[in-house]
Recover the amino acids of this structure.
């Protein structure tokens, strides 16, 4: 089973993942495709246990004004070498009213966790087979990185003071 | 030059630990080949024909003598006793063993060096004029901006996995462009506005490779303080919109072309409005801090040296070297000298551990302990007293550094090619060697004057063949090595991409073909015209007719 971590602990995964909507949506916390959610937003408005997942090639402009109330957004990394999701994460966290959980899913490996954390991901659904205990060690690779990002709103040259 | 503070050192040390862990996991089978690949690439580690190749970063080509000695030590201890200077001014080791790479990185970190982002689809080493800070007619020293960009781009969390590699160059010279700035993903030209304030002209979308394009101006004046927020905006637009479905269409140049430069510039500007004047804005304090690392050397007050003229008159070999390999310095009594790594019988850009040690000694004794690597694969001692040129020349000559061919035909740019590189379609070093042998006559070379001859072993264009006045590209023709010739490329301020002459040639014909092309130039040139000038005046036809005459 895939392990889920946040930035300091191992978590239970309470969200069911629905890759594509083929039939009526089940009860309980579910993550559904962002495009389906956008089309059916009005009829789904009564449910507070629906999160959405964006694929790496999502047109982010369509969602930016719509997502403020969602409890969870997941961004899929189809391959770890596809880094478009990092920019999506920063736009969602830094330029929208979204306050929920931002989750990295897909090809989520150890060596990218630090970058993902810096770009605003709160939780990480690790690729099958990876150890959650080990993964937690990879969130602090560099103590004082140069750039500003979601996790550090000032660059090093301002932080040094 | 820039000296690390405790923050810089810590980042590099943490990197050594990180890569050690990655290598150990790979060797233990915990990381797959595919998973390890981008990690090792971002550390400059390629797996090549015979062994991994490790590319060490030399930020904007500047090194201390201490660093040179460390490179010599690594070449001796972990490799076969030589290194290769690349066309991004980096240093490559051709034979390290993978399990030893973490130890090599630790050695490098002890002298403030690393291999971070020297390969992979990330922001690469920023390059600039090899004569930065010492050459006349320079607006100001571009290196502080290169260092600012180096820090910003090092482990940038958003841009570690871009659609493709990303290269930035900075030029500040009023007349020349020795950094091929317009052939970069971003080319920055330092300018002053009417109020005399420092800023940048930002060119985007240049590059070599499969689709060579000269960059286009997207911002005609960017204020100094806005440098990093604007770069963030360009990179974000690229990361979001660049193609990831086709490796050959993934560079930012393809995006700029597809959108049109106006739409692209508009997207960047819209993104930038969100970042402009935010915390990413450079502070005056930080600009001053970085610039403080690049203050002028401790020059003596000298007059231009009077003995020099006499030495030049008396010694023809010295004067040949002086005329080619010495450039004017902005301070009276000093000179810029280039130590060429283009000696007959040595692959262009290769240098042995002993030569590295000699170069370090020369740097200590003649040039404030600093040395520079150039994208033309030579070394530069930038601050030599004119009165010491003669003795420097004698020592450089003894070490094999003084072939007086800077800028001439045999000062070729050449990639490692099929002898070392797994990507190459054809060998490039034997072609370079054959040309060096054929055109060994210095009088003839000097008569030919300035010619850039660049050789790449494949489309990736590491040998910059597109911007050689004469470009040679290795191609594979049904398993045989052939070479395509292009003419008219140029990397200066009026950069141009070479035009292919016609069908490719077998390797054994290459020296004859180049000789034919040169003789057409010699016949058609008007007094004082360089090869590129004649080519631009007469066009390709006369060259083409003669090169393919036998076949007709």
């Amino acid at each position: 089973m895939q392990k889920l971590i946040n930035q300091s602990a191992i978590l239970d995964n309470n969200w069911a993942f629905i890759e594509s909507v083929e039939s009526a949506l089940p009860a309980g916390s579910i993550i559904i495709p962002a495009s389906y959610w956008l089309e059916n937003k009005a009829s789904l408005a009564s449910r507070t246990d629906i999160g959405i997942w964006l694929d790496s090639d999502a047109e982010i402009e369509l969602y930016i004004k719509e997502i403020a109330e969602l409890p969870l957004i997941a961004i899929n990394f189809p391959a770890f070498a596809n880094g478009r999701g990092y920019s999506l994460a920063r736009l969602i966290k830094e330029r929208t009213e979204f306050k929920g959980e931002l989750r990295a899913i897909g090809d989520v490996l150890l060596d990218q966790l630090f970058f993902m954390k810096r770009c605003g991901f709160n939780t990480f659904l690790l690729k099958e087979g990876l150890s959650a205990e080990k993964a937690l060690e990879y969130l602090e690779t560099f103590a004082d990185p140069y750039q500003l990002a979601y996790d550090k709103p000032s660059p090093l040259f301002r932080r040094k003071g | 030059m820039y000296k690390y503070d405790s923050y810089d050192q810590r980042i590099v040390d943490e990197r050594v630990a990180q890569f050690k862990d990655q290598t150990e996991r790979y060797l233990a089978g915990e990381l797959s080949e595919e998973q390890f690949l981008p990690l090792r690439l971002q550390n400059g580690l390629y797996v090549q024909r015979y062994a991994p190749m490790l590319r060490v970063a030399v930020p904007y080509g500047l090194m201390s003598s201490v660093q040179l000695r460390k490179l010599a030590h690594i070449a001796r201890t972990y490799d076969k006793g030589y290194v290769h200077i690349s066309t991004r001014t980096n240093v490559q080791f051709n034979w390290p063993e993978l399990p030893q790479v973490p130890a090599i990185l630790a050695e490098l970190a002890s002298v403030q060096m690393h291999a971070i982002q020297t390969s992979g689809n990330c922001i690469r080493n920023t390059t600039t004029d090899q004569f930065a800070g010492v050459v006349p007619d320079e607006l100001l020293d571009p290196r502080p901006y290169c260092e600012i960009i180096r820090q910003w781009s090092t482990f940038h969390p958003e841009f570690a996995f871009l659609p493709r590699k990303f290269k930035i160059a900075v030029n500040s010279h009023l007349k020349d462009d020795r950094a091929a700035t317009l052939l970069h993903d971003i080319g920055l030209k330092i300018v002053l506005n009417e109020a005399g304030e420092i800023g940048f002209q930002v060119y985007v979308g240049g590059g070599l490779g499969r689709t060579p394009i000269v960059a286009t101006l997207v911002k005609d004046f960017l204020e100094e303080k806005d440098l990093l927020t604007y770069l963030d905006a360009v990179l974000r637009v690229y990361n979001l919109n660049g193609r990831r479905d086709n490796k050959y269409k993934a560079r930012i140049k393809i995006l700029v072309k597809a959108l049109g430069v106006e739409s692209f510039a508009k997207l960047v500007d819209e993104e930038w409005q969100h970042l402009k004047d935010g915390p990413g804005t450079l502070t005056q304090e930080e600009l001053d801090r970085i610039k403080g690392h690049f203050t002028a050397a401790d020059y003596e007050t000298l007059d231009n040296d009077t003995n020099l003229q006499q030495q030049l008159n008396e010694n023809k070999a010295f004067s040949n070297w002086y005329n080619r390999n010495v450039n004017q310095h902005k301070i009276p009594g000093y000179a810029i000298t280039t130590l060429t790594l283009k000696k007959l019988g040595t692959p262009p850009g290769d240098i042995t551990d002993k030569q590295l040690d000699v170069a370090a000694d020369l740097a200590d004794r003649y040039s404030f302990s600093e040395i520079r690597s150039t994208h033309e694969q030579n070394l530069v001692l930038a601050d030599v007293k004119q009165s010491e040129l003669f003795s420097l020349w004698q020592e450089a000559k003894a070490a094999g550094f003084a072939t007086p061919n800077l800028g001439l035909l045999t000062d070729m740019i050449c990639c490692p090619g099929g002898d070392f590189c797994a990507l190459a379609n054809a060998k490039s070093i034997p072609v370079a060697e054959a040309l060096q042998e054929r055109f060994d006559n210095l009088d003839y070379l000097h008569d030919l004057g300035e010619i850039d001859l660049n050789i790449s072993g494949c489309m990736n264009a590491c040998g910059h063949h597109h911007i050689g006045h004469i470009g040679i590209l290795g191609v594979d023709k049904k398993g045989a090595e052939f070479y395509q010739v292009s003419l008219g490329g140029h990397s200066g301020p009026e950069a141009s991409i070479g035009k292919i002459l016609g069908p490719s040639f077998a390797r054994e014909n290459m020296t004859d073909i180049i000789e034919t092309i040169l003789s057409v130039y010699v016949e058609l040139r008007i007094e004082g015209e360089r090869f590129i000038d004649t080519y631009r005046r007469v066009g390709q036809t006369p060259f083409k007719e003669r090169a393919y005459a036998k076949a007709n």
